[in-house]
Amino acid sequence: MYAAKRPSKRPVIFILIVAAWLLAACGSRLSNANWPGLSAEGNIVYVAFGNGVLAYDVETQSNQWVFSPQPGRLSFYAAPSVEDGRVVVGDYGVSQGMFSPGVVVSAYGLSAGSGSTPDELWAANQIAADRIVAPPLQVGDRVFVGTADNQVVALDATDGRELWRKETGHSIWGQPSYKEGVLFVTSMDKKVYAFDAENGDLVWDQPTELGGAIASKALVDTDLIYVTAFDGKLHAISQATGEIKWSAEGQDWVWGAPVMEDGVVYFVDAAGNIYAVDGVSGKQLWTQTVEGTVQTAPAIADGVLYIASDKQSESDAAIVTGLLTAMSTDGGTVLWQQQTAVPIYTAPVIVGEDVVVAVQTTDDLLNAFDRSTGTKKWDVALPDTSQ
Amino acid sequence: MWDAFITIMVNALLLLYDILGNNFILAITVFTILIRAITLPLNLRQQRSSMKMQEIQPQIQAIQKKYKDNPQKMQEEFQKIGYNPADSLMGCLPLLIQMPILFGLYQAIISVLGSTPQAVFDLSQRALLGVDLTALLPIQNKFLWLNMAQPDPLLVLPLLVFGTMFLQQKLLTPQTQNNKDNKKGQQDNPAAAMTQSMTYTMPIMFGFVSLQFPAGLSIYFILSNVIGIAQGFYMRRTMPPPEPKKIAPKVEPVVEPESKKATSSNGRSSGKKKSGSKKRRSAKR
């Protein structure tokens, strides 16, 4: 009887149903994942990662607050913007429901409250239809938010009211930059835009697009802005016209924004090459290399560059850890290196005498090292809300 | 292994995107046509197998009833009428083969459209030599009101997924099963009932999950269904509905008088099928 039983299609249908559900269930996680966003003001480090935003007091080594409005549904990865204790953060959006699949993306204004959660000053709901990847920028009583659905939105920083919005050619992943009433916005469409910060009027958009997408913010100096791109170059662009003045060559994609000290601009490409370039002429002063892939901007303070990268194990290529390198701006001498359990893809921040990096192991979220010696000083565990 | 499969799909999509003037819709279209072309022989085989099954279903049931306590004899009788149970599994093969393609395409679309820095970083690790990712990025993810990496907010694509898949299922279901006069036959025939239920459950299921799929994947489904519809029309033109009467006598020698009732019952319903088919054909005219 069994030998002759006609095979049923039931198992196939069951497999199809399970597979389709898995497809739908796993998909949103795939598309929403990113690395932590890190920023600091005073002694407080702010981390956006997973379900929430965390404020950590370096001095007292304690959590100040955790902001997690919809655990399990809402994710935060863009580095929070902090200005005089006011924190502005954007989320990755939440689906409106099965039969209304549009995504609602919001920005929030927060301030430290008395308890373990911050006071929510305002929430600007439906600010975008796609994620906020770029850290917002606060200038006085305004907040400028770049979104992954190509918009740059100006909000009132006190109540979250929308003041104006403009569109670029593609996603905005870099934090907007500001100088004297002009907002400089980089876009993945390979162009930089200058907007009047007051009313959003376009001052200029770049006459010539760059050779690659721009994933980081523009560095603003006296007359020039410096922009790095996936074309592996550092571009110096006129603040007045958007004209490219000169470009300094790298060898691979540049993910992180350039940094500047004493008239010298530093940038790091994905292959781990560090370049020191004269900020006026674009002439290369020196170059150095660190091990691994560099996917973020370096931090700079008092003549030292702090560069985060990954590091492949020599014995097993499948094992990848992280590496933090302190390098002198005077010729690129390596001062110290420290290994972390996982790759570091978030820009380090400097808090007092510490350099802080974000990791995302099952145990740690933050690691702090002594800026001078590289000695590990403290770490912070991944809070439940971020798991 | 799976990772290598995803990498191949990602690079195929990137190459098509490059060749087709950086148009992601066109890239998905050509990709879909290629996938359907690769699986076409399997699909045709499934259809032929399905139609053949439908044709000899009354005899199979009669044999199953008569020899339910004698599997060996049942097998012998099955062989006589040219039925091999394993063929039913082979008929499911195209569906099973398409599942990893769907999974792979889903991940490939998410990867190629790279809506987060991490996704683009992963993409940069996957791009093979010959793909100039620097020039290709950013991938144009907007088409009309759609963001290819996100579900359609207006629900147009899920409805189209449902509609096209329903039509495809209808056309690919053997014609005898579409006969409304044959309800009793379907009750006696669980396989036909199952196929009939798939006509509704599959479109509903895929339409439902399309609510959460990236628009790019929904477009793949719709295009794939449209090609399936064309294939269904082709099958209907080239493969006429079965003529059960010609086959029925083959069963006679193996069916005892008691089970002749079952055979004749099926025979009657088969007769209705035929007349139903005639009606349909004349309606077409």
Describe the structure in your own words.
- The complex is a heterodimer of chains A (387) and B (285).
- Chain A is built from one helix and 33 strands.
- Chain A has one helix spanning 10-32, and strands spanning 37-41, 44-49, 52-57, 62-67, 81-83, 86-90, 94-95, 103-111, 119-128, 137-139, 142-146, 151-156, 162-167, 177-179, 182-186, 192-196, 202-205, 219-220, 224-228, 233-238, 244-249, 259-261, 264-268, 273-278, 284-289, 299-301, 304-312, 320-328, 334-340, 349-351, 354-358, 364-370, 376-381.
- The N and C termini of chain A lie far apart (52 Å).
- In chain A, strand 32 and strand 33 form a beta hairpin.
- With 387 residues, chain A is mainly beta.
- Chain B has 285 residues and is mostly helical.
- Chain B is built from twelve helices and two strands; from the N terminus they run H-H-H-H-H-H-E-E-H-H-H-H-H-H.
- In chain B, helix 4 (86-113) crosses helix 5 and helix 7 runs parallel beside helix 10 (215-238).
- The radius of gyration of chain B is 23 Å and the shape is elongated.
- Mean pLDDT of chain B is 75; it is low at 245-285.
- Chains A and B meet through helix 1 of A and helix 3, helix 4, helix 5 and helix 9 of B.
